[in-house]
Amino acid sequence: MANNSTSQNTPVPRVKRRRRNISLVWFVPIVALFLGGWLVYISWVSSGPLVTISFETASGVEAGVTKIKYRDVSIGQVESVEIGPDFSSALVSARLDKQVTPYLNDSTKFWIERPRVGTSGISGLGTLFSGAHIGFEATLEGAEKRSFIGLEEPPIVNTRSGGVHVVLNAKKVGSLVAGGPVYYKSFKVGAIESVRLNEELSSVIVKAFIGSPYDKLVHADSRFWNVSGVSAEINSEGISVNLQSFESLLIGGIEFDSPSLGKKPQPVDSYHEFQLFDSFQHLGVQDYAHKLFYIVNFNQSIRGLNVNAPVEYRGLKIGRVVNISSRYNKTQSQILLPVLLEIEPERLGIIIEDDFGVESAHEEIIDLGLFAKLENANLITGQLYVSLDSYDDEEKTVLTDFEGFKQLPTVSTDLNRIAANLGAVLEKVNDLKLEPLIENLNASVLILQDTLENAGTFIDNSDSAVKKVVISLSETLEKSQKLLITGEQMFGRGHAVMQSLEEGSTTRYKLDQTLKELQSAARSLNTLLETIEKNPNSLIFGKQKSN
Predict the structure, then answer these.
(1) CB atoms near residue 437 (< 10 Å)
(2) Which phi and psi (to 5°) does residue 457 adopt?
(3) % of the chain beyond a pLDDT of 70
(4) What span, in angstroms and rounded, lies between the C-alpha atoms of 339 and 513?
(5) pLDDT of residue 236
(6) Which of 169, 120, 417 is nearest to 287 (CA)?
(7) Degrees (nearest 5) of the Cα angle 539, 545, 547?
């Protein structure tokens, strides 16, 4: 019992397990890992997008060094530069700031900024000291994009401040180049962005940008024309030479105006299409789509007639000369000089709604009974143009075909008609028998000279001598009368010749004056002869005064 009580009162030791505590040493890598992850997260969240830019050459671009700048402010950096997969380009990978992300779209432009000397001036001189950098420009418009093709040249115009893009369709480029100025009232308001051929290779497309606030000057009725180089014009007022500016002389330029047509101007959206005229003088000269072609064979010299010479109808330009060639006609043994004319019937008010209306326009042109005639466009240069008109004195003829074209009849020019009339006059003058008249005149002059030489002797002679003088004078009078009759016949023939000339011509006027002078001389001679007949002594003593 005692043993039991003793064993029950004996305390039993408690076994306590020792807790395992984490060493403070482990807190260091945990904190470092946490901080590293946080930094990675912050870096991932704050870092901007990675873009790839393809350039033809990456001259001056270095990984980890070259910056991407916008208005000379760094917005990114190049991370790597490598060759493209096809070895045709250089691929530049760059990390941009996050704030640039909304601007990475179809409108984004990248280029390598280097020192350049071009038609638009000198740029990039600052890179001589700071090194090359990649330029950046974009807007918020466009689809999101991360891969770009870099420009080899900086953008011609600055679109950051806003403006309007226009597309100009021209027949020829002239001296226009990218970077050329755009003027409004001789004030520079924009620049040419690009010059290229259209897809059909039939015309030139010129893209230009007019910056704000001048973009408000462009509306639907605006007119654009080329001011490249020097333009000269010869007109009735003299010679005028126009030079827009020295810049346009070197690289070409465009000018536009927006005339007020009595209605509210209609603004246009970007890339609205306009026609680019060759010069200010060509404004309003609309180019119609439907054209008719005719052949003309002139029977005279065509010296002074050139390709693109105008074709006019009573002073209205309706077409141009397309081609001038030569053909040998074996059957007639002559050389023909066919001139191909291009006529726009709509300029004559002949409306062509579709292709079927072309044949109808041909018939209407034929019904007009037009004749072709060469006219002098400029007396100084001797240039000619083709005049089409209908003439009452010319009969309408059926148009013949010549090498697939309708052949228009021709009429002689006014100069040729004058020459033909002068030829006819000369033939009639040659038909006049002037030799007997000249012989009679010479004989009369000799008789008068003998009479005057013997006048002193007649004074001393008797009345019989005076009678001889009277007889001699009577014979002279008879011969003079015959001469007068012959002269009157000649005047009558001259008058008939003069009637053959056209009214108002210079030749008619000169002949008229000459005949009047001859008639006056004949009257004076007739008066002299009548005086001598009535008073023969007047040759000696002069005309006696009446009591």
Answers:
(1) 16
(2) -70, -35
(3) 61
(4) 43
(5) 39
(6) 169
(7) 140
Residue 138 and residue 108 in contact, taking contact as beta carbons nearer than 8 Å: yes
Say how far apart CA 363 and CA 371 lie, in whole Å. 15
Structure tokens at 325: 């060639």
Task: Give me the pLDDT at residue 77, please.
Answer: 92
The radius of gyration computed from the CA coordinates of the chain, to the nearest angstrom, equals 51
Strands (E), 128-186: 133-137, 147-149, 163-170, 181-184
* Res 504: pLDDT: 58
Reference 72, options 103, 41, 20, 113; nearest CA is: 113
**394-439 confidence digits (pLDDT tens):** 667 777 888 888 888 888 765 555 555 555 655 665 665 556 666 6
Q: Are 205 and 198 in contact (CB under 8 A)?
A: yes
The single-letter code of the amino acid at 352 is: I
Sequence letter at residue 335: I
**Unique residue bearing structure tokens 């690009």:** 194
Residue 167 confidence (pLDDT)? 93
The two structure tokens encoding residue 234: 């010869």
Among candidate residues 253, 170, 254, the one with its CA nearest the CA of residue 205? 170
* Distance from the Cα of residue 519 to its chain's centroid: 58
Please give the Cα distance from 111 to 78 (Å, whole number): 13
Burial of 537 (0-12, 13-18, 19+ CB in 10 A): middle
Beta bridge partners of 407: 295, 400
263-294 pLDDT, tens digit per residue, is 677 888 888 999 898 877 767 556 666 788 89
The whole-angstrom separation of Cα 338 and Cα 340 is: 6
Is residue 56 classed exposed, middle or buried when 0-12, 13-18 and 19+ CB atoms within 10 A define those classes?
middle
372 DSSP β-pair partners:
388, 410
Q: The tokens of 449 are what?
A: 């000279």
Whether the ω angle into residue 85 lies within 30 degrees of 0, i.e. cis, is: no
Q: What is the pLDDT of residue 45?
A: 66
Query: In terms of Cα–Cα distance, which of 420, 418, 434, 430 is closest to 518?
Result: 434
3-state SS string for 439-493: HHHHHHHHHHHHHHHCHHHHHHCCHHHHHHHHHHHHHHHHHHHHHHHHHHHHHHH
User: Which two structure tokens, joined as six digits, stand for 32?
Assistant: 């470092």
Alpha carbon dihedral 513, 518, 524, 529, in 10-degree steps, equals: -170
Most confidently modeled range among 14-23, 87-96, 346-355:
87-96
| DSSP states of 327-369 | EEETTTTEEE-EEEEEE-GGGGT----STTHHHHHHHHHHHTT
Looking up tokens 């409306």 gives: 351
d(CA 281, CA 225): 9
Does 205 have pLDDT greater than 80?
Answer: yes
377, 384 Cβ separation under 8 angstroms:
yes
DSSP string, 54-122: EES--TT--TTT-EEEETTEEEEEEEEEEE-TTSSSEEEEEEE-GGGGGG-BTT-EEEEE--EEETTEE
Q: Read off the pTM.
A: 0.48
